[in-house]
Design a protein that fits this description.
Layout lengths: L7 H12 L5 H13 L5 E6 L11 E5 L2 H9 L7 H8 L4 E2 L11 H12 L4 E8 L5 E8 L8 H20 L10 H11 L4 H8 L3 H14 L5 H10 L6
Antiparallel strand pairs: 1-2, 1-5, 3-4, 4-5
Helix pairs in contact: 1-2, 1-6, 2-6, 7-9, 7-10, 8-9
Protein name: LuxR family transcriptional regulator
Keywords: DNA-binding, Transcription, Transcription regulation
Pfam family, one: Autoind_bind
Length: 243
């Protein structure tokens, strides 16, 4: 039997390479399940961290959690009391769940969260905070019965988490819709937004008023707009034109 330890950096880069070929959330979840299982993880959730007016279930990107626990967690608003989420907001460094402090006397719901998770076999866990340059806050929180967390595995897990998050966000982001307006239609609506009449715009662009009117009618049809003003409002709302 060899005494050599596994090269976790190779595992991490293999995982990252596979991510580039995944196109659906289920594919990413399956890849994460297989790869993170090597470190002892059975459950995970990748989610944004909610502001007071938000519900965490609307921010979840991917999850492999016991459904009954997820329902209890969201129904009781446990994210407001979860010691792991509270620490996640205060640090950029990965941490073990056991390192997330809470006082059972002042935060009894925090104790309820940790005991509830343990009921579903989620006793040990590891959380990787993700803080974007634009202030976006998220985390990948994982758990399992017996975790392989060492100075060698933690950097690999951190790298894998960051790339998994970026791939999930890319896959789940709505695809940008092509601008249905032609360049001349956009230009015509832009001048209309600035208060120019069809005659004024025709003079500016060196075409007839009739041509400008035709461009506006075409834009109205494409945007399902009742008139020029409505078309301008819709084009601005959907950022099809800028001023």
């Amino acid at each position: 039997m060899s005494g050599r330890s596994p090269d976790h950096s190779i595992e991490a880069f293999d995982f990252i390479e596979k991510l580039d070929h995944l196109a659906t959330p289920d594919e990413i979840i399956n890849a994460m399940e297989r790869s993170f299982a090597r470190f002892g993880f059975e459950n995970f959730i990748m989610t944004g961290l909610p502001h007071p007016e938000q519900r965490i279930e609307t921010l979840v990107l991917l999850k492999k959690w016991p459904m009954d626990w997820f329902r209890r967690y969201t129904r009781n608003g446990y994210d407001r009391h979860d010691p792991v989420i509270r620490l996640c907001r205060r640090t950029v460094q990965p941490f073990e769940w056991a390192d997330a402090p809470y006082d059972p006397d002042t935060n009894p719901k925090g104790l309820e969260v940790m005991h509830g998770a343990a009921e579903f076999g989620m006793k040990q866990g590891y959380c990787l905070p993700i803080h974007g340059l634009n202030g976006f806050e998220a985390c990948l929180s994982m758990s399992g019965p017996q975790l392989d967390l060492t100075p060698q595995t933690k950097p690999a897990l951190h790298l894998m988490a960051i790339y998994a998050f970026e791939r999930a966000r890319l896959v789940l982001a709505p695809a940008p819709q092509p601008n249905p307006l032609t360049a001349r239609e956009r230009e015509t609506l832009r001048w209309a937004a600035l208060g120019k009449s069809a005659a004024d715009t025709g003079e500016i662009l060196g075409v007839t008023e009739r041509t400008i009117t035709a461009h506006i009618c075409s834009a109205c049809q494409k945007l399902s707009a009742a008139n020029k003003t409505h078309a301008v409002a819709r084009a601005l709302q959907h950022r099809l034109i800028d001023l």
